[in-house]
Sequence to fold (298 residues):
Amino acid sequence: MTNFQEETYTISETAEKLNLSEKTLRRWEDAGRFTPSRTVGNQRRYSIEDLQILDAIKHNVIPHQKDLLTLAAAAQFLDVTEPTIARLVNEGQLHPFTTVSQKYYPRHRLLPFLGNIKGESPKPQIKIEKRPLTTEPPSEPAPPRLPPLTKPDVMSTHSQSLYTTYSLQAVITIILITVYHLLFRTPSTPTSPTATQGNVQGAATNPSLVLLDDMLDSATGGLTATTITSKLGTITPNLTLLPGVSPTSPFPGSLYYDAGENKVKIYTDTGWQNLTTTQDLDLLKYDLESKTASPSTL
Fold:
């Protein structure tokens, strides 16, 4: 014969037998509705009696495991003797909850008998309050006090009206000032120093351009013929082209010194041309001026 009290099940087996999910069993445990036993390795184990109690919780027979009281606990709950509980069961007035190993008495089934069992409920003690004898007549109760009549707070209403009016005026004033600044005030643009004809722009504020500004003639815009004095000493301005290669993005009038051919070249619409004499420069200048002026003569 199988000993049902020793047979236990895991949480997955219990969930399958009761047609519940493992999540529901864990949620009931977290809510304190049922607490299973644990193994040494902290694994949940459910007995046959546990399955019967869980099935009763599932079908709302009892709300919690702790609501199942033993015979001694039920007698203590009702403040009666255990034979009285047995008498109520035999008379069919109380129905216990029976498992494979024990008989329990649900708490909600005991509540109707609380203090209503004949011959077992304690007699209530009546307290007699002793009052000293006095010859004074009983005092009449004072009439109830009516709350004082209050007038409506006229000043408070007037203050609120004034506050609302001033607030509205302040908002309108701010809006008008904002519109005025947006429509009639133009932002001032900072003025930058302009260079005079023939001078380098920015030389007045940038010391690194002072020497280049001194090398230019303010009247013609070309190199000055006079000597100037700088940190390098007294020099006569001249223009020197360092040997190199042709620029990658030239435009008409660009100059460079060809390091391979040892020649100065100028870029025109027909490409790079050698610049060897003053006559060549004049011809190229005439050619550039004629091509520049030709569109305006059409």
The first helix runs from residue 11 to 18. The first strand starts at residue 8 and ends at 9. The mean pLDDT is 75. Residues 55 and 83 are 29 Å apart (CA to CA).
